[in-house]
Amino acid sequence: MPKEHSVLPRPRLDLDPDAPHVADYFHYADLLTDDERAQLRRVREFLAAEVAPVVDEAWQRDEFPQQLIKGFAALDLAGAGYADPPARRLFLGFLHAEICRIDPSVNSFYGVHTGLAMGSIFAGGTPEQRERWLPPMARMEQIGAFGLTEPHGGSDVAGGMETTATRDGDEWVLDGEKRWIGNATFADLIVIWARDTDPEAKGAVRGFVVERGTPGLTTTKIEGKTSLRIVQSADILLDQVRVPESHRLSGGTGTFADAGTVLQRTRANASWGAVGVQMAAYELALSYSKEREQFGRPIAGFQLMQDLLVKMLGNVSASLGMAVRNSQLLDEGRGSDAHSSLVKEFCASRMRETVAWSRQLVGGNGVIVANGIARYFSDAEAMFSFEGTREMNTLIVGKNVTGHSAFVR
Fold this sequence. Notes:
By secondary structure, the protein is of the alpha+beta class. The chain has 3 domains: 28-138, Butyryl-Coa Dehydrogenase, subunit A, domain 1 (Orthogonal Bundle); 144-254, Butyryl-CoA Dehydrogenase, subunit A, domain 2; 257-402, Butyryl-CoA Dehydrogenase, subunit A, domain 3 (Up-down Bundle). Helices cover 49% and strands 13% of the residues. It has 12 helices and 9 strands. Strands 1, 2, 3, 4, 5, 6 and 7 form a 7-stranded mixed sheet that branches. Strands 8-9 form a two-stranded antiparallel ribbon. Residues 145-241 form the Acyl-CoA oxidase/dehydrogenase middle domain. Residues 33-141 form the Acyl-CoA dehydrogenase/oxidase N-terminal domain. One of its GO terms (molecular function) is flavin adenine dinucleotide binding. Its cofactor is FAD. It holds the Pfam family Acyl-CoA_dh_M.
């Protein structure tokens, strides 16, 4: 008989919905109410039963598991942030951390839909538009996407936006391109931001809801990504796309300020996503260190391995603490763009360190997708850049603390 291969230990996450996360070293989850903890327990059950078993294969296949939408809908949480009263930002933060702890791509899908797309309609829509689109989106019967970034416009997309919107009677004609638009390959509704060509508008950027199947709208999947592969990112071409005036988001300021409101919210959520990735990376490394033996004993007993683990735990704890406090300030109405930018910059930077140390501890086994860490390591690279790069967030905070803008136009 052929000799069998040795069975090596695999890093594992604890998927018990009742077990406290070992990465929550200072017990921040105790700040949640009993009802919020019960809701998160349902989320953890769903993630363990339906998401965790499929994400490795989906990541390698570069596909989004469409069956997960039904499971997310059953949780009945997609509209929680827009209810009356809305769910606490603290609870929603923990929700994003839980999802990201299992898979960052799935959290990105959920965040684009609930945060960027639904958030745009909530912030910029009229009462009639909210009533038309938000309920079916909350039930996840219609999935949303958010079309802001362009091929030539990332950090300066607001000032350099090339996509145009031209009024023609009771319609608007949209022309241009968007890039890196998550969910766009299958979204039912895409919020498109475009510059008004009317000279009297003075370059105002406006939001429009474009329905799938609208003539002139083309979405093309971006192939060959090495990060967030489950996210179906797309290039969007808008060629004389006509939308009625009723599809222009005109209930807020009617300008890019509405998008700014949304981005502040989602930037805070992105910080929680970075926390979730760090929790997973730390927990995977910790579990592996207790089972992997070298020199006759588990590597958990070596000083250098403990040093890595403690540095990871410090990063997770500091990031979690900042994310919690930022959410509390937002719940109190005292949070600012600068607060969210500082937290995003800090958490994303610490995440990059944490996933690298986790991969280092697991060694060569850390580059195998089935061992988990490789997926988080790769996905962290995209998360480090989206929702505001580190450099742009430092400029937002720098302007706030010094009173001097370092932005260059």
